[in-house]
Specification:
- The chain is an alpha/beta fold and about 375 residues long.
- It has two domains: about 1-160 and about 345-360, Rossmann fold (3-Layer(aba) Sandwich), CATH 3.40.50.11720; about 160-340, 3-Layer(aba) Sandwich (Rossmann fold).
- The chain has helices at about 10-25, 35-45, 60-70, 85-90, 115-120, 135-140, 155-160, 170-175, 190-205, 215-225, 255, 275-280, 295-305, 315-325, 325-340, 345-355; strands at about 1-5, 30-35, 50-55, 75-80, 95-100, 125-130, 145-150, 180-185, 205-210, 230-235, 245, 260-265, 285-290, 305-310.
- The two termini are about 10 Å apart.
Length: about 375
Amino acid sequence: LWMHCASLGEFEQGRPLLEAFRRRHPEWQILLTFFSPSGYDLRKDFPGADFVEYLPEDLPALARQFVEILRPTLAVFVRYEFWYHHLQALREAGVRVVLVSGVFRQGQPFFRWYGRLHRRMLGCFDRIFVQDHPSEQLLRSIGYERVVRAGDTRIDRVAELPRRPFAHPLLEAFCEGRRVVVCGSTHPRDEALLAPIIRRKSQEGWRFLLAPHEIDESELRQTATRLGVPLRRLSEGTAEGASVLLVDNVGMLGKLYRFARLAYVGGGFDAGIHNLLEPAAYGVPVVFGPRHGKFPEARALLDNGGGFSVRSSEQLDEVFRRLEDAPTHRRAAEACRAFIEANRGATGRVLDELETLLPPTRR
């Protein structure tokens, strides 16, 4: 099995499927490839794969050579990964190819008059598993029928987070008896939006766990300057005198939402929001910026009342005010949990369909 992910976010979507496939087929060898260093560097030692590598450059000779050496039985591309020459090489070699957790939008080249090459890439897939109904409709509108609406595989993973044990005395002491906001994967524009709220709410006894998207020393110093409040870094081992604890490590964010009354997820003023599913899995109402059109989960949470999109500090302050009302907070929290529960099962649906594509001797 060969699975390709662009970066860390796509890996988190593919990971539940990769792990489920390995449990069902422990005898298979698995190759995991990345395009981005941010994915490779963090997951190059991932124990669920036998080999972790960079994707070779998408050139005809390199793609053919890679497929000839690898000789995969099944290739799985995650979400947005369309590499023309790699797909052509796989098709020429007779390899089964699928796309998982796909999301399609009307403005993409697949659905435009000039999108012939992109539509040719769609023809290389034996199945395209999409997250939502609009994506399925778009593909069918151009005559692509090998589409399966399976949902988002990440949900199966995040749904287990609240059940996993986690102990951290410093975090527990910092959050105990307090109203806590977890600000995850924040960018500078998110922090500028949050700063006046943090300064005001800190005086009212709120506590903030802030996990910036970038955690190099320069970025952390700039974050501290932007916020303008007494803060500590988690790595210091103490939170004395601070209302803000800066989480300066990688990999802990998904566990922090258990402490939250409210979550703010960054990226919505830049390329796009980060992971909304993790706070939702804990039943934590989630706030994010305006650039969320590419994310079906954002639309769903906005529609069911578990999510809130803001463009300004004034709007964020209004969301805080509304969610300080206990019944309103309870309804939003229940909406988040209901969304996660209603959308579980994508991994099993994809895995069962993959079985039908495998040679009988390899099932």
